[in-house]
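Honest question from a wet-lab person: if I give you the sequences of every part of a complex, can you actually get the arrangement of the whole thing, not just the pieces? Trying it with mine:
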Amino acid sequence: MPIEIPDVVVDRLPLYYRLLSRLDAEGRAVVSSQELGEELGVTPAQIRKDLSYFGRFGKQGRGYSVSRLQEELKAILGLDGRWKVIVIGIGRLGRAIASYPGFEGQGFDVIALYDAAPNLIGTEIEGQRVRDVTALEDDLKKTAVDIGVVAVPGEFAQDVVDTLVDAGVNAILNYTPNRVQTPPGVEVRHINPVLFLQSMTYHLRQRRSS
Amino acid sequence: MPIEIPDVVVDRLPLYYRLLSRLDAEGRAVVSSQELGEELGVTPAQIRKDLSYFGRFGKQGRGYSVSRLQEELKAILGLDGRWKVIVIGIGRLGRAIASYPGFEGQGFDVIALYDAAPNLIGTEIEGQRVRDVTALEDDLKKTAVDIGVVAVPGEFAQDVVDTLVDAGVNAILNYTPNRVQTPPGVEVRHINPVLFLQSMTYHLRQRRSS
DNA sequence: AAGTGTGAACAAGTTCACAGCC
DNA sequence: GGCTGTGAACTTGTTCACACTT
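Yes, you can. This is the full assembly:
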């Protein structure tokens, strides 16, 4: 039916959505692909083409209604509902994630925290009681979860992900430096700052020797 | 002179480097592009082509020497020296970053922390005294820094980045959700988990309605 | 026999350029 | 007149397939 939409396109939509939210908050009513592109460092043609995969949201000669386009993207991205998120691994990083203010406001509810450390289990963090990770499997049978955020030590990442996937969690945000294997259909995103640093040092080195 | 190397290729090198480090630690002496590819979910041809931009590191009929290739990549990526990193914004996230164990081991030295909060300035975090962000500009004149990690509240991101760039910092790792503008030649990487979540929900929504 | 290195073929993604509409 | 929507042209990136080396 609808032609297949490239992943790169989908990955840019949240960027557009975020900018539109800002413009809306600033009271802007209409915006052109030109302006959107300037703000985001993307060509106007790219933006028009991307949006055209999903519909015809603009008006020739005028541009896009900010609020209309924002609503459209919200629906396309599935942000018109709420999503249940759990965080596994409540070390320094996990704690920062669990308390990240950007989630709630965007429709993501952190509904549970898990860890393996006895001295953490049962304590309260950001208004959430930390649960024993060994209870994860049973918990998932009782309560469906949409997204699992993994912030355990790297060597446990695959185990945790397997548990999540077996229980039907189809989206994983992996903060560990280990890549994880998942069956097709499961969405995985890796956040590894070291990889970014290492590609930047390549470029720093280049420019130094020119 | 040497043909221009695509950014996508450079971005994959750290991935290869990381896997080779692991294989080396496991005592593997030789590895084929086939194996590397399986482990990383990349085609063997891709890996061979990527490496061929930089030299001929393999031996036909045998594969690649793990330690040799690791050393080559280390040199290519500039990981044979040490890089000076500072972190600006020592909230929960900044603290997690400052204490992230993956940096030191890979040649990245966090040499200073900055914040604007009076109750934080002067306190010690991870063995580092937190400095007043208003001292940043002067500090940079005295001590060159390679990479700035920005973890301040979003509205201050551009200001901090401007200060860094004006002082000659050419690599920025931006943890705030705000995109920042930089002159050409400055490397910027954005880490925004919300964008990942939002592209994943698109796919979750798709699969649900099929 | 096995596996690299690489030009050539192919696929994916981006930009152009312009008809069509407001 | 101004800006969208989109096929076509182009550019970039990936995979193929095989000559060549060990």
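Two things worth pointing out. The longest helix of chain B spans residues 7-25. Residues 32-34, 44, 48-49, 51-52, 56-64 of chain B lie near DNA strand C (CB under 10 Å from a C1').
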